[in-house]
From TrEMBL:
Gene3D superfamilies: 6-Phosphogluconate Dehydrogenase, domain 3, N-(1-d-carboxylethyl)-l-norvaline Dehydrogenase, domain 2, NAD(P)-binding Rossmann-like Domain. Keywords: Gluconate utilization, NADP, Oxidoreductase, Pentose shunt. One of its GO terms (biological process) is pentose-phosphate shunt. Catalyzes the oxidative decarboxylation of 6-phosphogluconate to ribulose 5-phosphate and CO(2), with concomitant reduction of NADP to NADPH. Its EC number is 1.1.1.44. SUPFAM superfamilies: 6-phosphogluconate dehydrogenase C-terminal domain-like (SSF48179), NAD(P)-binding Rossmann-fold domains (SSF51735). It comes from Uabimicrobium amorphum. Belongs to the 6-phosphogluconate dehydrogenase family. Residues 178-463 form the 6-phosphogluconate dehydrogenase C-terminal domain. This is 6-phosphogluconate dehydrogenase, decarboxylating. Pathway: Carbohydrate degradation; pentose phosphate pathway; D-ribulose 5-phosphate from D-glucose 6-phosphate (oxidative stage): step 3/3. Homodimer. The active site is at 182 (proton acceptor), 189 (proton donor).
């Protein structure tokens, strides 16, 4: 009996697309979906070459040994439930891959649990959406290194490639490292998307450009440092119409989130890393969701604003976009740097930058420079101090500031771009007013303070005359 090289549990958009891609590359694939038997039936009819199983027991019997199982199911309890059921049927040397957006702490726990059962567990972040799953995604595997060795020959055939033909997958690190890096990827994605939305907001509302004009601006920008997948798709979106009406004009101005952005902000708080642009992007989605409140507030504040000159501000917007993107990537990589030290993962940041250069949602020209910076110095605490980025920001920060001032004058909110500028200004400041903050804490809570002139922790009787 012919058996499958790999089995996939979960036939949603990503699971089904990965099965199709693997099959195209010559791998024999088994599929199962106990959650959605309707999807399994649809898949069986469309792809009769795939070995379909109606039960988990039947599914495992279809697999070559050592078995390789990719789970593409909803994160959380469903993953734990399936791992418990699967581990009964699997054993020594078998590998289970969780390809969903699981929390890295859950992947850490699952890796330790399955190691005790002699089963390899790989928590693998996947970026690229449906198109990437079908044509080449970016894979971020963590957990069992031996497990990755077992499955890497399969996944390296369906990964995306960079412009210089580098495969967009590599071993990330032990425990939950793979899902942590995917989580940060999604946090960066939140930031970059919000920045582009703010640029669109300025062009549309401050400069009164129509979608065709904004399309031309975006298209002219999608080269050089700001060239990116998100700018590319934003350009395409602007040109799409339903009849004579731009589809953007028909879409409600509210946004949802699935949790990975929030997890990124929570991880940054736990590790003491500042990621204000990413956090602000999350808050912007929250504000968009209270649409009825915003509509009422808009009626209460009938404010008048001055006009802005098109020629000057367009150039400023471009440089603000470039600088804000730099700061967003810098915050994400600073978070991974700190996590690597805290959790002992020994992350190779230049390799992470490299596998993000193709296939994934946040791929961008800028990542080539980040790749080079960390290749030269993997201990770099913040990519902003790399000479390339220092040179760019020294030359362009005036435009960035001018754009923020212009937006303030006309009342167009650009919270992510503004927070990126404030992050940059705080990071480059030789002195910050935290001495007053220390004194305030000591005044009301006797928390003590550190001094510049001698070591130790001190307390003052602030109420004493």
């Amino acid at each position: 009996m012919i058996k499958a090289d790999i089995g996939i549990i979960g036939l949603g958009v990503m699971g089904s697309s990965l099965a199709i891609h693997l099959s195209r590359k010559g791998w024999k694939v088994a599929v199962c979906d106990e959650f959605r038997p309707d999807l399994l039936e649809q898949h069986k009819k469309k792809f009769p070459r795939h070995m379909a199983a109606n039960s988990l027991e039947e599914f495992v019997r279809l697999l070559k040994k050592p078995a390789k199982v990719l789970m593409m199911i909803k994160a959380g309890k469903p993953v734990d439930d399936y791992l418990e059921k699967l581990s009964v049927h699997l054993g020594f040397g078998d590998t289970i891959i969780d390809g969903g957006n699981s929390h890295f702490a859950d992947s850490d726990r699952r890796h330790k649990l399955l190691t005790q059962k002699d089963i390899h567990f790989v928590g693998m972040g996947i970026s690229g959406g449906e198109y990437g799953a079908l044509h080449g995604a970016s894979f971020m595997p963590g957990g069992s290194r031996q497990g990755w060795k077992e499955i890497s020959p399969i996944f390296e055939t369906i990964t995306a490639k960079t412009d210089d033909n580098y495969p967009c997958c590599c071993w990330i690190g032990t425990d939950g490292a793979g899902h942590f890096v995917k989580m940060v990827h999604n946090g960066i994605e939140y930031g970059l998307m919000q920045i582009l939305c703010e640029v669109y907001h300025i062009l549309k509302c401050a400069l009164a450009l129509d979608h065709e004009d904004i399309y031309e601006v975006f298209q002219s920008w999608n080269r050089g440092p700001v060239r990116s997948y998100l700018l590319e798709i934003s350009t395409a979106i602007l040109s799409k119409k339903e009849g004579s009406t731009p589809i953007l004009d028909l879409i409600l101005d509210t946004a949802k989130h699935k949790g990975t952005g929030k997890w990124t902000a929570q991880a940054a708080l736990d590790l003491g890393v500042a990621i204000p642009t990413i956090s602000t992007a999350i808050h912007s989605r929250f504000l968009s969701a209270i649409r009825n409140e915003r509509l009422f507030a808009a009626e209460q504040f009938a404010l008048n604003f001055s006009d802005v000159e098109l020629q000057d501000i367009t150039n400023n917007i471009y440089h603000a976009l470039c600088s804000s993107m730099m700061c967003t990537y810098a915050q994400g990589f600073a978070l991974m740097h700190r996590a690597s030290l805290e959790y002992g993962w020994q992350l190779k940041l230049h390799e992470i930058a490299r596998i993000w250069r193709g296939g994934c949602i946040i791929r961008a020209e800028m990542l080539s420079m980040i790749d080079r910076a960390f290749f030269e110095n993997n201990d770099l605490e913040n990519v902003l101090i790399d000479p390339f980025f220092v040179n760019v920001l020294n030359r362009t920060h005036h435009h960035w500031r001018a754009l923020v001032i212009s937006a303030l004058k006309v009342g167009v909110p650009i919270p992510a771009i503004s927070s990126a500028l404030n992050y940059f200004d705080s990071y480059r400041s030789a002195w910050l007013p935290a001495n007053l903050l220390q004194a305030q804490r000591d005044y009301f809570g006797a928390h003590g303070y550190e001094r510049k002139d001698r070591p130790g922790v001190f307390h003052s009787d602030w109420r004493k005359k």
